[in-house]
Specification:
Strand order of the largest sheet: 3-4-5-8-6
Oligomer: single chain
Structural class: alpha/beta
Number of domains: 2
Strand content: 25-35%
Largest sheet: 5 strands, mixed, barrel
Shape: elongated
Number of strands: 9
Helix content: 25-40%
């Protein structure tokens, strides 16, 4: 009997070898990135829990000299005097759609050394403003959360110790400890004290962890998983050909 030919229009799945090798690899990378984002979300959830737990704990006296701040915040208390002539403004801080700055003030510890105290957010007075940020210099106990300096994704140059003397409160863009330390004669502790919301001499303080929220990482994870699914669908559709 003569051999029958395949009916016209019948489709068959006939992917080339390179597609069979490349597609699983690309999908594996995308799934791995999605899993990594889920892990990052879990880490951020834990850090948020650490933040709330630390604020609820009884403050402890910060060691002298102060240890470098860890990611998990510590609720601490420090005795010293503010140095109003040594302050910095952390620039470009947006809150509820409004531009502002965070006021960092040096505190000379009774036990020696200096720590920076973040006194909170306030509306940006403008770069041409001569506004001062007064604070008393009496001996006091300052309470708050001991945390690492906030960091930006892209490192920005802060030339605090170059050229002419800086203004009373120079603007900074996420400086490192080394960039700040050269501005002081005494030893500067590696960290930042977020002033307690109920403490005096502060501005707006609704402290939250200064990193991406877990929800953002969940969104990224969904995107990566969706990309992997899209690659699989394209692989099937493109290679489902007429015979």
């Amino acid at each position: 009997m003569p051999e029958r030919s395949a009916p016209s229009g019948v489709r068959a799945f006939r992917p080339p070898l390179w597609a069979c090798l490349l597609t699983p690899l690309v999908m594996a990378v995308m799934v791995a990135l999605g899993v990594w984002q889920l892990q990052r979300a879990a880490e951020k959830q834990q850090l948020q829990a650490d933040f709330r737990t630390a604020m609820a704990q009884t403050p402890q006296i910060l060691a002298a000299p102060a240890p470098p701040a860890a990611m998990a915040p510590q609720h601490v208390i420090v005795e010293g005097r503010y140095l109003p002539q040594q302050q910095f403004l952390l620039d470009s801080q947006i809150r509820e759609g409004q531009a502002g700055v965070r006021v960092w003030t040096a505190l000379q510890r009774s036990t020696g050394g200096i720590i920076l105290v973040d006194r909170g957010w306030t509306e940006d007075p403008g770069r041409q403003s001569t506004k001062q940020w007064p604070v008393g210099t009496d001996l006091r106990q300052v309470q708050g959360l001991w945390r690492p300096l906030p960091a930006a994704g892209l490192q920005v140059a802060n030339r605090l110790c170059e050229g002419a003397p800086a203004a009373a409160a120079p603007r900074v863009q996420y400086p490192t400890h080394a960039q700040l330390a050269c501005a002081f004669e005494d030893r500067l502790a590696d960290g930042l004290l977020l002033l307690h919301p109920q403490a005096a001499d502060g501005f707006e303080r609704a402290w939250e962890p200064d990193y991406l929220r877990p929800e953002v990482h969940w969104g990224y994870a969904v995107q990566w998983f969706a990309f992997a699914l899209a690659v699989f669908v394209i692989f099937v559709v493109v290679n489902w050909k007429k015979r």
